[in-house]
Design goal:
There is one protein chain. This protein has 8 helices and 4 strands; from the N terminus they run H-H-E-E-H-H-H-H-H-E-E-H. By secondary structure, it is α+β, with helices and mostly antiparallel strands. It has one domain. The protein has a 4-stranded antiparallel sheet with strand order 2-1-4-3, with no helix packed on it. The longest helix is centred in the middle third of the chain and has 32 residues. The two termini are 29 Å apart. Keywords: Membrane, Transmembrane, Transmembrane helix.
Length: 314
């Protein structure tokens, strides 16, 4: 019971140290996520309603004047896949995690201050795990904030009954992936306690790689039309399979195959093109979270193992 009390004190101390940053980045997460999801809102036509979670394209044509109105060019899943649950968010979260890894772990190890926590009658293993948990709690607050906003917007979508469960699973996968990513960075830091500059350079290279692969795939390949024959950058599709963000299990992965439905509603001719979900990797939707938890537990164990055997100068 006493140990549990000390554990809470150590965890609370680290979170109090970071509360201003948590508040600042929490507000940024709220506004950035809300702005991105608002971008996916549909401007309703006379007979078209929105928004849609699915990748979908709808055109509305009036026989009266021949005008053609285009809608749903940006679906909610498109914004989530292309911006919120990929490199831009991972880049920012990675920077935040690295700052706190430097502050909570590397700085205290190099100054010998980390051993002062042992006066709380806790082991080395508990000290390092509590510090990593504190960093992950900060990460968790931000990713949960993003996820709640995304789920609120998606719950209002026209096709929420069909896809909302996948949105929830996607949020869960993204949260777990970020915890794994942060813990792996912490493990790398523990192997470079005397080479802080090299650690920070390594993280910078990883985050730059994240951004470059995202830019080449989503901005260049997808932005130029994807698999269409006219796209001179079709070869960049392969970048997706070499990117770190591809390890995020995506339940809202839509293919380029679609079904077209044509309807006449009053004086309007409505063409709806609905893209199909990628069913090839459905097994990953359930295996992915289990794999994340396994890697998270293993990485946490390695962090504790490394720190308990480290020589620290007081």
């Amino acid at each position: 019971m006493e140990t549990f009390k000390f554990n809470n004190k150590i965890l609370a101390f680290h979170l109090k140290m970071a509360w201003k940053w948590i508040l600042f980045f929490g507000i940024v997460a709220i506004f950035a996520t809300s702005a991105a999801m608002l971008f996916a809102q549909t401007v309703p036509g006379e007979v078209i309603q929105g928004p849609y979670i699915a990748r979908i394209f709808i055109s509305e044509n009036t026989a009266e004047n021949g005008s053609n109105y285009l809608f749903i060019e940006t679906s909610q899943s498109g914004v989530i896949n292309g911006f919120l649950f990929t490199a831009p968010s991972l880049l920012i979260l990675g920077i935040i995690s690295t700052v706190f890894i430097n502050d909570f772990i590397l700085k205290e190890i190099n100054q010998g201050k980390i051993l002062s926590w042992l006066t709380f009658a806790v082991s080395r293993k508990q000290v390092i795990l509590l510090k990593i948990i504190a960093i992950n709690v900060i990460n968790l607050i931000l990713t949960c904030t993003m996820s709640i906003i995304i789920m609120v917007f998606c719950a209002l979508a026209v096709d929420a009954n069909q896809y909302f469960g996948r949105v929830v699973l996607y949020c869960f996968n993204f949260i777990l992936f970020n915890l794994v990513f942060t813990t792996i960075l912490a493990l790398a830091a523990l192997y470079m306690t005397e080479k802080i500059r090299i650690f920070n350079l390594l993280v910078a290279i990883i985050l730059l790689y994240l951004f470059i692969t995202w830019f080449l795939y989503f901005v260049v390949y997808v932005g130029q039309g994807g698999d269409i024959q006219e796209n001179a950058f079709r070869g960049l599709k392969a970048v997706k399979y070499f990117s770190i963000q591809s390890f995020i299990v995506n339940p809202l992965d839509f293919t380029d195959k679609s079904k077209t439905v044509e309807n006449i509603v009053g004086d309007y001719f409505v063409v709806t093109e609905v893209f199909e979900l990628n069913q090839k990797n459905e097994w990953l939707l359930w295996f992915g979270p289990i794999a994340y938890l396994g890697v998270l537990a293993s990485t946490g164990y390695l962090c504790a193992w490394k720190f308990t055997r480290a020589e620290i100068m007081v």
